[in-house]
Every structure is written in C-alpha cells, then in structure tokens.
Amino acid sequence: MLPKGTKNLKNLRYLDIRNCHELTSIPVALGQLSFLRKLSMFIVGKEDGCGIDELKGLALEGELSIKGLHNVKSSMEAKNANLIKKHNLRSLSLSWRVSSNKSSHHQNDEEILSALQPHSNLKKLRIIDYQGLMFPYWMMDLLLPNLVEISLGYCERCHQLPPLGKLRFLKVLNICRISALKYIDDTFYGDMESSFPSLEVLSIREALCLEEWTTVNGREHFPLLSSLTVDCCPKLVKLPMIQSLKQLQIGETNVTLLAPLIMNATVLTSLQISGFNELPDGLLQNQKQLVSFCSLKSSSDLLDNLSCLKQLYIQDCSIESLPAGLQNLSSLKTLSLNCCDSLVSLPVNGLQGLSSLSSLRIQNCKTLASLSEGVGYLTSLQDLLINGCPELTSLPRSIQHLSSLRYLQIRCCRGLISLPDEIQHLTLLSLLEISYCSNLMSLPQGVRNLNALETLRIRGCHPPEKTV
C-alpha cells in the first residue's frame, strides 16, 4: 500500500509502481498532483477520490496502465478521465481486473471503453478482460492511426476483430483468448490494397472457437510478417500461407495445417512445434536454412538435411535415445533436452559430429543415468548444465576432453555421489556450481588444480540424515 499522504507531494513528477503486483488500491486524490507527468499505473477504486476522474487534470506522458475498470460506474465518469486530451501518452493499457484472480463481467463495458478514447498520438494499446460484444468505434474506425503495437487479451465475448489491416505503422499484434471469435475474414484487413503493410510479429493464442482464417484474393497481405505464433486453436482448419515467415511457433492446432504452412515458408529460420502426437513425413525437407528448431517430438528423419541448424530443443517427449540424424548437425551450437523421461543415456558414438556445439542443457530427464563417454567428443562445448536428473550418479571420465568448457552447473541431481578426478583437466573452467545434490559427499582432489576457476558455488549438498 502506498502512503496515504502521497497527495501532499505537490512537486512529484514521476511515480513508478509498475512492478507492484500486489497493489490493489492507490491513495486518494492523486489528481491533486498537478506536476505529475509519469504515472505507470492507476487502479480505479470505489471510494471517493479514487475514481478514474482523478486522471482528468493530469498531463501524463509515456506509459499508463489503468486497472480495475469494473469499478467505473458510468461512461460519463470514464470520459472525465480525459484520455483523448493526453497527447503525450505513448502506451496505454486498459484492464477490467486488478489481479489475475478478479475478472470482470460489467454490463457497461462497451460504453465505458468507448468513452476511454485515447489521443491519436498513441503508439501502444493493450486491452485486457474487456467483456463487451464489440470493440469501440475508435478502434473500428481507426482513430488511432499511429499505433505500432496492439495486444488484445481475454476479451472473451468479442466475435469480430477491428479492421486492423488499415494501420500503416502496426508492427506487433498479439491476440489471446478471444473465445467467441469464429472467423478472421475480410473485415480484419480493411479495404486497403495492401493490408498490414508494416506488421512483423503476429500472435494468436487460445482462440478456442476459431475455425477459419482467410485472406482476400487479389490483395497483398502481411508483406513484412516475419514471426507468427498460432497456439491452442483446436478448431482452426484454414489459415493463410505466408512466405515471408522467418519464425514460426505452432501448437495444439489441426495437424493438417502443418505441412502446407511450413513448406510455403521458404525463408524459415526458427520453428517451434508442440502438442502434436505425430508429425508429417518430410515436414522439413525444404527447410535447409532452418537455424532453430524446437519440437515435442523429434526423430532422425526430421533432422535430415538441416545442415544450417544452430539450435535444437527437444522437450516433453518419450524418446529413449537421441535421433541418429543428430550427428549430421555440424553447425549446431545449442542442444537442449527437457523432460525426456525415457532417455537413459546419451549415445556413445552419436555425438562426434557436433563439432560446433557450445551449449548443452539437460533438464528434468528423470531416468537419465549416464551422459556416456561420448560426451568427450564435444570439444567446442563451453556451457554444460545438468538439472533435475535424479538417477545421474557421476560424470564420465571423458569430461577431461572438454577443453573449451567454461561453465559447469549441476543442480538437483540427488543421485550424484561423485565427480571424476579428471575434472582437473578443464583448464578453462571459470564457474563450477553444484546445488542440491544431497548425496555428494566431497569434491575430487583435482578441483584444486582448476587455475582458471573464478566462481565455486556449492549449496544444499548436505547428505540426508539417517533415520532409525
């Protein structure tokens, strides 16, 4: 809670409470701070002196987040906030909730949002938990022509998106949990010959009822779009093919969309796939420029011909061994294995092709018992993290061949009982961290020979007390 006497700080110009997530109210009469120029957050209260009309006389600049709009009693009260006159505001967030546990179902949401029209200079707009059926006229008629970024979240009753394709400067558009939305059609693009001419990043998440996303024939759409996220849209059966994509994240959507979408994205460099039980054969056969790939399922045929791949993330899958195609990834720099619960060991002979690998991160692999001596082939490795692998008992002696290793971190491996004395040959090691490995009794004598070591961090490594 802020001090009740905040209103007496007559010369206050800057009040930053952005990260005060537990704050549920603000002091009364902040409107008396006539010199206040930057107010990061305003929470509308029910008490006198805490209403949204406290903003009326404040010449605010920069960013403003208004929460608790369900406490606004009428559209007249909302209009008294005078947002349309605040020409120096660049970013505005409007939320009908104070915290994640309090959502709004206010019957006057449409009238209130209409009355909160910002100045046309606004560049960033965020609307959260709005429960109206339609977006306000100032969004439908595009009275905010300078918008660069828009986020619409949890507007669960809205069934139509504004014609945002008309916004010439819009670069980022995030849409999340607009549950009543069934179709994205020509109204979304407006009547422009080229719609979304500047859009670079588009994210559509949790559109649970969305069935079709179509384009208008004969018009140009998304000429600069480089990053697309489509996640948790289970009913979606149609979406546009966008050739300019460089980054694609897709999950929990109809599997039939995968192949045409990916094959049309001819300059794709980053791909993240999740929530599919099976992936189509030859899915990545034309993606020779792919640099980053994240999948919940990974098999050798998917990794064939990915000679440019630099980052590979495999997570939440039941593989018992790493794909054979892994050894062909000579450009790979980062390999991350997360929640591969059936993986028992790394291959002895499957790592020698990873001559460029600099970072290996193995996390939450519950049955992993050994890294295998094959780790010694990773002579370019600089960063090794092992976290949450309770069956791992030691590291292989071949770790001595990791001549480039600088950072070694082992966390939450309760089965770890020893480290090999060969660790002394890691001449470039500057950080050694061992955390919450409760059965590790001591460090090897060779640790004293680590002349480059700058940080030694050991915590939570007390052996468990014996019970009688």
From TrEMBL:
Which stretches are transmembrane? none
Q: Which domain of life is it from?
A: Eukaryota
| UniProt-listed SUPFAM superfamilies | L domain-like, RNI-like
What range(s) does the R13L1/DRL21-like LRR repeat region domain occupy?
52-176
Q: What is this protein called?
A: R13L1/DRL21-like LRR repeat region domain-containing protein
Gene3D superfamilies, alphabetically? Ribonuclease Inhibitor
Please name one Pfam family that this protein belongs to: LRR_R13L1-DRL21
Known InterPro entries for this protein?
A: LRR_dom_sf, LRR_R13L1-DRL21
